[in-house]
Specification:
Elements (H helix, E strand, L loop, with lengths): L3 E7 L2 E3 L4 E7 L4 E8 L4 E2 L2 E2 L13 E8 L2 E14 L4 E6 L2 H4 L4 E9 H8 L3 E4 L3 E10 L1 H12 L2 E4 L3 E5 L9 E5 L4
Parallel strand pairs: 11-14
Antiparallel strand pairs: 1-2, 1-7, 3-4, 3-15, 4-9, 5-6, 7-8, 8-9, 10-12, 13-14
């Protein structure tokens, strides 16, 4: 008999149960997102999941999710907790590495720059870029994700990020947008 399996790891806490999981991956959105619903009234070692200062889950915690059918499973999501909503069941919102790009504010101004130079100055991870002249470029109090969005608008290029690299430019292989929605619900 085929038996679905899940393994969810948030920081050092691992569990294999959930009420519902939805993952959305779309290249055009610059980020993969997810919504995880788990039972609210769970305690581990006297700690509650999200209440008070002695809780297990916090915004910014690293998340890894693997799904499959016993005995095989594959990692389908790696990212961070972006929000925790105190509903019943508990709702944990997830984002991939783009979450990190939204944490720091940037202000950059160039009279003349290239795409490669701009990314060298502001990109927090390794990147791959085509050579492109941007001319003047200015953005104030924006996070890196907003800089990528602005590049996308101004140049019409496909821009996206993965957990360890950033890709910018009009690369034909990157123009294909994929959208995947996985749902795992108790029936």
């Amino acid at each position: 008999m085929i038996r679905p399996t899940c393994n969810i790891k948030i920081n050092d806490f691992e569990f294999d149960f959930l009420n519902e999981l939805e993952l959305v991956s779309a290249w055009k959105n610059l980020t993969d997102t997810g919504t995880l619903r788990i039972p609210r009234k769970i305690k581990l070692g006297g700690k509650t999941l999200v209440a008070g200062s002695n809780n297990l889950f916090k915004r910014g915690d690293k998340v890894e999710i693997s799904l499959g059918y016993y005995p095989e499973s594959a990692r389908v999501f790696t990212g961070f907790v972006s929000a925790i909503l105190p509903e019943s069941p508990l709702v944990i919102q997830l984002e991939d590495a783009a979450y990190l790009f939204k944490q720091e504010s940037l202000t950059v101004s160039y009279k003349e720059t290239t795409l490669k130079q701009l990314l060298t100055d502001v990109c927090p991870i390794e990147f791959v870029s085509v050579e492109a002249n941007l001319g003047g470029f200015r953005i104030s109090n924006a996070n890196f994700a907003q800089v990528l969005n602005e590049l996308k608008k101004r140049t019409g290029s496909q821009v996206g990020c993965a957990i360890r690299s950033c890709i910018a430019g009009s690369l034909i292989s990157l123009k294909r947008a994929s959208r995947t929605s996985l749902s795992f619900k108790e029936v």
